[in-house]
Amino acid sequence: MTVAAHALARSSGPARFSSKFRSPEIMAGRQPEPSQPDAFQPGRVFGYLSAVSFVLIFMPTAVQAHIIQSGTGGFRSGFEHPLTGPDHFLAMFAVGLWGAQIGGRSIWTLPVAFPLIMVAGGVAGIVGVPLPDVEIGIALSIIALGLAIACAWRPAEWMALLLIAVFAICHGYAHGAELPNAADPADYAIGFVIATGLIHLLGIGVGLVLGKSFGGRLSQGLGGLIAVGGVYFLVA
After folding, report:
1. 94 near 82, Cβ under 8 Å?
2. Is the pTM of this model over 0.85?
3. What is residue 132's three-state secondary structure?
4. Which of 81, 146, 152, 196 could cross-link 115 (Cys pair, CB 3.0–4.6 Å)?
5. How many helices (H) and strands (E) does the chain have?
């Protein structure tokens, strides 16, 4: 082999070898784009939180007794009250479900606003501020939330928050008015706010899952059932 042939082999061999391992961007004369970190997925986070909420809500009573240590009428009573009252449970579940159906900021603004305003209603109930026909308001809130979900109504955020505020006052007032005389109001309020948040998370998780099935019709069907439950509480 001649000297020229040796030189040609040395220059072409590594070039061919290295070209196999070059990215298309480099071969085309472009710089490769830096890899992007995985995008934050709120749906997955809410899914995990909803699973935890499901376990805490439906775990056996004996297990709850070890986790929720408090005297009668305190934190434990406040925590159990929304879970054992089907009218309260349906409304709080519907708030999370509706927020998930609306999407955007409403996924968290509705569930956050409801318990905060509910505390104000609870204080009014404890103090004894007169608020007539609270039970009717609770039943109507279930009907309204169920119909909103069934119709896939997506109002402006301020309108949804206004409706949630009215409903939260009714539910909070009922909690406060039913507060046992021997209870610690602060512990009781903390208990029912935490339980309310867990029910909201459960509703959000169910809404995010069902919202992807059959074009959201499963969520709408569940909203119809919730509205029927509200009618039952209205006439019962």
Report:
1. no
2. no
3. coil
4. 196
5. 11, 0
**How many other CB atoms are there within 10 angstroms of residue 157's CB atom?**
14
Question: How far is Cα 18 from Cα 22, in angstroms, rounded to an integer?
Answer: 7
Nearest one of 169, 163, 168, 140 to 234, comparing CA atoms = 140
Residue 96's nearest CA partner among 148, 131, 41 is 148
What number of other Cβ atoms are within 10 A of residue 171's Cβ? 30
Of 235, 229, 232, whose CA–CA distance to 92 is shortest? 229
Which whole-number Å values give the CA distances from 29 to 16, 26, 32, 36, in the listed order? 16, 5, 9, 21
Using one digit for the tens of pLDDT, what is the confidence trace for 46-104? 444 444 444 444 444 433 333 344 445 678 888 888 888 899 999 999 999 999 999 99
CA 85 to centroid of chain Cα atoms? 20
- For residues 36 and 17, give the distance between their C-alpha atoms in angstroms, rounded to a whole number: 29
Residue 216 CA to residue 136 CA, distance in Å, equals: 30
